[in-house]
């Protein structure tokens, strides 16, 4: 499938979904829409990507033909920016579907809904959960499959990246491994999944469990993307529902080197990672026994020498193997399985 | 306000909402509807209630005049039982509002909606959360008010009862205390509140925080009704959102004497209560420092002598004062504040 990705004024640093799809998606990306960096290519900003040649263009009119427009950014709160309207309209008029992970649903927008209908295209709000979710039955551990879940010291510490790197490394090692996406970017990459942060809280564990049940049969291992952090003042409910719904055999704790405050909640210090790991293990253990597979440290802000020191220090603090999934890959963690 | 309470075939033991409203509500209950125990009075089943004289009747046609019909029971899953339809219809036709805490919304039922419109009465689905909820700001601790939250070793261990007994004892002790209801029964008793189990999981902490903000200004103490249990395989997300949204100064751990398995999830043993208390404190402490005020033990299944022993043993296990709120009252806990 050929896609264009909207990332106005935020590519690449604040365009987590766009970069995630470029790095891990099966889609053939034909253009990134960013009026600020138009005229450059993806490789000018992210030289290590296979998709380095993809052009960055001003708007949908300048993009080559595509099957779907992906909304690749999200303002805080998940609202729709009115300045994106001409591009969404343009995509629909060109006969393309539009895929969005915003809290604001495109299907609830009268103009888009009518236009999509007229042009026979689909608006896919990937954050909209299925209507038939229910409570967990507590049976994930009975699945014939080992479950690995990423947890974090905060939001945006690399849980999705780590999960997908683990998946790739497991497959390269010959393991029969599957991915369980729980957030909008993971869902766009995978093509399926449920955004747990948008489910009714009573059904958060149940929605997680349901995804595992749907995917476990064919797999020896499932790698579940975690959300938020168990010590986050706003989002911990989502984390907790995933931990107990997934009943993981193994946890990987993701942290960003140098970050010591909860992002956007700066009055809250991030506790010592080993204390967070202990809390996650204790929380999980009371429902199903769990072990810490290792740590994943995002060292993208550090120079190579510093990075290696930081990764080693992180591992000693956790008492477990640690890697930067992007710098080192995740083989050291996969070997523990 | 005069109310009738529907509790067909489940009064009193499986009619938690009906009994809660009878025990703690300000409403003047004129009748309980239960076709199985019709002809008896509330006092025949629950002699300690002030509302002992309330008649139990076959259906709405046999009840004295009332302003509202309350649905006082909930089947597992929160669905609507079709056998209740004639009573709900009858109430509307008599010009009464209908108040329901079911997951099934009366307002979504075409027949009821039309009939209510015709008769100018309101259908109040108390489990339907406000449409404008948002994420927590993490500021509950900054409120000029001490927060006491009940947590439990399982569902239905007496969290609402304990919270309301604490509220009553605090007020009798001359403290300026308020109630924060987080579930359907608490909301029916209070007349306000948000059912946290029905909010979007991203907003569970935010919805809790919002209730505290609305109520804190006028109060020295707020008593927050907890939900579920942090070790529950299905509902822990709800618990976690309330713990971090409320940022309580004090926790009270509620347990039912003799219960050793999660209700409805019998393959899960209930962990040692002191371990659950530690987990709750650890979880809460990482966001805002918290202390264990004491324990509340439901000993309704025990003889008086056994009950006193069980309460003392529970207190020693927790290393904190313990009471059965119904047998002993909660003064011993309120004295700690």
UniProtKB/TrEMBL annotation, chains A, B:
It comes from the Archaea. Residues 35-129 form the D-glutamate N-acetyltransferase-like N-terminal domain. This is DUF1611 domain-containing protein. Pfam families: DUF1611, DUF1611_N. Residues 135-333 form the D-glutamate N-acetyltransferase-like C-terminal domain. InterPro entries: DgcN-like (IPR011669), DgcN-like_C (IPR035086), DgcN-like_N (IPR035402), P-loop_NTPase (IPR027417). It comes from Natronomonas aquatica.
